[in-house]
Amino acid sequence: MKMPAAPQKRNRVRDRNNALARPEFMSLNQAATSPQEGRNFSRKQSGQYGNSSEGARERRQSQQLPEEDCMQLNPSFKGIAWNSLMAIDIAMSKRLGVCAHTTSSWGSARSMVKLIGITSHGFPWILGTVICLWKSNTLAGQEVLVNLLLALFLDILTVAGLQKLMKRRGPYEVNPSILDYLVLDVYAFPAGHASRATMVSKFFLNHLVLAIPLRVLLVLWAFSVGLSRIMIGRHHISDVMGGFVTGYLQFNFVEVLWLSSSTCQMLSSLW
Length: 271
Hints:
12 helices, mainly alpha, 271 residues
């Protein structure tokens, strides 16, 4: 009755001598599990230790990270160049915004600098053009004034449309004035005052006979208007440059759509 004890002892000795039977090598004898099963197993272990809620919260936060918070290991050269230019534009614009607030370095000159920008505001120019057109008696004067009025309305609509499309804010938190809301000049790009000053200056240089000092003053006036908008913190440098380009393109477009004297006389008779 005691004979089977010998085979059991031999099995124990064999298992003791077999290295794969040891606890630290038990995983080698098990079938390989898929990555999904491994993840499920790790989740079960973390749940056994009471960290399942924290792990789920961390996984949820990692899944909700926006793309801009992720590290781009291989950004494109175009993206690097564009971001660098935008950073330089913002830094230079903030440095030139010396009249952005009354507490700025040139805050005492803010009213005077702001007055330079008002000289290119759309509302005074439209009102002045209408008054001059109403008092004009010559066909040549009416032709120039009607086309100027057309250019001013075109400038307001173009700038308002581009600003609504871009929706770019200025370098400083400067609220638009009531006059800015009247001509829909709310956002920063492109600068409406710079666009209008460029278009009006080019218009007068081409259609009015002016002495050389007045022609130089017109160019300086347009440049001063753009600079004043940067100094009061309303626009970036790129916004003003975009305004200059927009005003020049608008002038060329008005030249293509130039209304003849007979058309202007017919429109003037409707007043």
